């Protein structure tokens, strides 16, 4: 059950297996093993998942944490937003840094800088 819940949470956050694995600094194979129920994350790994906004209470117990913020799903994005996210997810780390820097620079130039990764 834990593996299925990890997969549900990953999909809820619109993350690929590689994207989630990279974000918490594990091998993609490790994540696949979790999702298939072959192994389970340890406490440090659960903490890393939680830091990404994954509902660890749900993963462990099956009960949702009502205090977690709602996540924007891909279905609520415009086509342009979805395409931008898709381009970001399908580039290498250098490409991601360029996209992030470009977005931050443009936002800063027009005075709308909210946050940077």
Describe this structure in words.
This protein folds into two domains: 2-61, 434 Repressor (Amino-terminal Domain), CATH 1.10.260.40; 74-109, no CATH class. The chain is 59% helix and 0% strand. It is mainly α and 117 residues long. The longest helix has 17 residues, at 93-109. The N and C termini lie far apart (32 Å). It has helices spanning 2-12, 17-23, 28-35, 43-51, 56-61, 79-89, 93-109.
Notable characteristics:
single chain, 117 residues, mainly alpha, 434 Repressor (Amino-terminal Domain), 2 domains, 59% helix, 0% strand, Helix-turn-helix domain-containing protein
What is shown here, in short?
With 117 residues, the protein is mainly α.
N-to-C series of helices and strands? HHHHHHH
CATH superfamily of the largest domain: lambda repressor-like DNA-binding domains
The N- to C-terminal Cα distance equals 32 Å
Output mean pLDDT. Answer: 85
Question: What would CATH call the architecture of the largest domain?
Answer: Orthogonal Bundle
CATH topology of the largest domain: 434 Repressor (Amino-terminal Domain)
Query: Outline, from the CA principal axes?
Result: globular
In percent, how much strand structure appears in the residues? under 5%
The count of domains is 2
């Amino acid at each position: 059950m834990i593996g299925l819940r990890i997969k549900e949470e990953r999909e809820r956050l619109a993350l690929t297996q590689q994207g989630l694995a990279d974000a918490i600094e594990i091998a993609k194979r490790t994540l696949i093993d979790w999702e298939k129920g072959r192994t389970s994350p340890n406490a440090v790994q659960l903490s890393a998942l939680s830091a990404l906004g994954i509902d660890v209470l749900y993963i462990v117990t099956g009960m949702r944490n009502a205090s977690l913020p709602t996540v924007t799903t891909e279905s609520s994005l415009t086509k342009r937003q979805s395409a931008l996210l898709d381009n970001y997810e399908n580039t290498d780390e250098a490409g991601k840094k360029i996209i992030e820097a470009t977005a931050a620079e443009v936002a800063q130039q027009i005075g709308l800088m909210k946050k940077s990764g």
